[in-house]
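Hi support team,

I've been running sequence recovery on a batch of backbones for a student project. Most finish fine, but this one hangs at about 90% for roughly twenty minutes before it completes. I'm not sure whether the input is malformed or the queue is just slow. I've pasted the structure tokens below so you can try to reproduce it. Let me know if you need the job ID as well.

Thanks,
M.K.
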């Protein structure tokens, strides 16, 4: 008799690479379809190049629970309207203050969603990493 994946303890990690994208172009990248209920504990963004924040023209990275394609729950986010990003330096996104937003169900689909304000900013290649616990 072996151990099942759902019996693992502690934080697990899943990650998705993000392609470089032109300023003003929205992009949504699937991260994972969860085979079990989870508790999101942290979301990191590792930009591959420096990002110069702009109060008018910026992008926002949101990690969303699309709930099998139809959901709009924002689990974590980070806007580049005021603080610069440093190349290859992990940034912790701000988690939702609503506890239920951080508890995706089995079968839910998580995505990294980039939207723009004004003319936006170029999105560098990077990596979005989600840490979670099976519940």
């Amino acid at each position: 008799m072996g151990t099942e994946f759902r019996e693992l303890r502690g934080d697990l990690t899943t990650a998705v690479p993000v392609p470089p994208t032109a300023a003003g172009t929205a992009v949504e990248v699937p991260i994972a379809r969860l085979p079990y209920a989870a508790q999101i504990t942290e979301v990191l963004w590792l930009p591959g190049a420096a990002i110069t924040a702009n109060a008018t023209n910026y992008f926002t990275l949101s990690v969303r629970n699309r709930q099998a394609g139809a959901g709009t729950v924002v689990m974590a986010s980070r806007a580049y309207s005021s603080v610069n990003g440093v190349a290859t330096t992990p940034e912790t996104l701000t988690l939702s203050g609503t506890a239920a937003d951080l508890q995706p169900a089995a079968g839910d689909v998580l995505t990294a969603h980039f939207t723009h304000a004004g003319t936006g900013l170029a999105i560098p290649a990077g990596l979005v990493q989600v840490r979670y616990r099976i519940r």
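--
Follow-up from support: It reproduced on our side and the slowdown came from queue contention, not your input. The beta strands are 12-18, 27-33, 38-47, 58-65, 73-79, 91-92, 94-95, 109-117, 126-134. No action needed from you.
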